[in-house]
Each structure stands twice: as structure tokens, then as C-alpha cells.
Design a protein that fits this description.
By secondary structure, the chain is α/β, with parallel strands linked by helices. Helix content is about 35%, strand content about 25%. It folds into two domains: about 150 residues, Rossmann fold; about 70 residues, no CATH class. The chain is built from ten helices and ten strands. Strand 9 and strand 10 form a beta hairpin. Helix 3 runs parallel beside helix 6. The protein starts with a strand and ends with a helix. The relative contact order is 0.18. The structure holds adenosine-5'-diphosphate and magnesium ion. Magnesium ion binds next to helix 1.
Amino acid sequence: MSALLSVSGLHAGYTKDVMILRGTSLELSKGELVVIIGPNGAGKSTLIKAIFGLLKPSRGSVTLEGEDIAGLMPHSIVARGVGYVPQVANVFPSLTVEENLDMGAYLQPRQAAARRRELFEWFPLLKERRKTRAGKLSGGQRQLVALARALMPDPKVLLLDEPSAGLSPANVDEIFQRIGEINGRGVSMVMVEQNARRALVNADRGYVLDQGTNAYSGPGRDLLHDPKVIELYLGGK
Ligand SMILES: Nc1ncnc2c1ncn2[C@@H]1O[C@H](COP(=O)(O)OP(=O)(O)O)[C@@H](O)[C@H]1O
Ligand SMILES: [Mg+2]
């Protein structure tokens, strides 16, 4: 199967001299949910940012449907069908839910209202809260706003950076369920998660990133049962 998104031998960092990613590779096929786990500071967020054009790679390639997108600006990457939900600061707190969603459609403002109605069908809670400022919502609700905003342009690929971080157990359940549904509707996904076991159970494939390089990769359930992965990255047992 040919990859929808392919990252190969990527080197990138925040300054010229310090590379955070040192030869990272990743593949996402159509329809897959691929999960990235690894210790704090491994470079998981950096990898997502580099795919989305927020960091310019110094070596290696990023291709989307065979086309090189490394070094393109984020808005060009959005226009090619990639959405991104950042780990932090992923909503505009002073804007309403509705305005947040419309920010996600800034490339096609005329389609915004129709797409927003579709997403409100899908996320009834957001419809109820559409006139509420995002900053007034609970953490779980804000995460749904961020997800819906990223879905506004109807992306083929969604990049999710720790969508369950800081949420209560009930909200973690809801966000994982939503992510599963979105994937079920055909959106291919790369998801970074600290909730590693849970994320790997539902993943088609997983990658363990450590110190900017791939440590392990394989089907989600194989990683879950790999003694080395368990010992080093899943906290034993
Ligand atoms: N904006 C930044 N400027 C400089 N260094 C950064 C920045 N963001 C992250 N880093 C550094 O890059 C490394 C990887 O960070 P990150 O990709 O956020 O890790 P992870 O998401 O795996 O926890 C860390 O050493 C971190 O301190
Ligand atoms: Mg991170």
C-alpha cells in the first residue's frame, strides 16, 4: 500500500545547531490511525510541528500523496488536506465556539456556515454552547472545540498532539470515542499520546520515539506486548 503521508530521515530543530529530530521516519496509509508514544522531550510534538510546516526540516523528506511538502507554510499544508490540533493553546479563548470553528475555515469562508452546521450535528454539545466563549468551557469541551475547528476544512489527515492530556477520565473516554468515530469516517490520523497503552490498543500501528529517532515501531498490539517496549516505555508489567 502506498503511503498517504510519509516522513523519511527527518532532521529538524528550533535552532540551526541543535537537532531535535535526528532521522525520524513515519508512514501513514489511507484510513489508518497511527500513534506516536515516547518519553517527555523525545521530540513527538516537534515531529508533528515539522510535518505541519511550523519547523523547517534541515534534512529528510515529508511527502503527502507522493508530493514533497517539507518546508511548505502551514496554510499551504492545510490547503492540501492536513489538519492539526496542537498540544497546548489550541482554542481562541476570547472567541465563541462558533467563531473558533469559523477560524478553522479561513481558507474557504463561504463554506464555513454549512460545514459548521454539519459539525454541530456531530457535536451537539458544541451547538448548545455555540455562543459561549471557548475560555469559559471545561477542558474536555475545549478539546472538542479544537477537534471540530481542525475538522472544518474537511481534512484527509489529522495530526493530534496529546488530545487527552489534562482531561478527567470521563472526558478522556469521550475524546477517544470521538477520535475513533472521526477515523471511522475515513480521516487518517497521526496521534501523539501519553496515555500510551490505551492509545496503542486502538492504533493500527504505533511508533516509539526516543531522543529524536525511532526506537520501535509496529502494529499497536504488537508494541503493547513487546517486553522491551513494556519495560522501557509503558512503565513495566
Ligand atoms: N519552542 C522550542 N524552542 C526550543 N526548544 C524546544 C521548543 N519546543 C521544544 N523544545 C525542545 O525540543 C525537545 C523535544 O520537545 P518536544 O517535541 O516538545 O517533546 P515531546 O513532545 O516528545 O515531549 C525538548 O528538549 C524541548 O526542550
Ligand atoms: Mg509534546
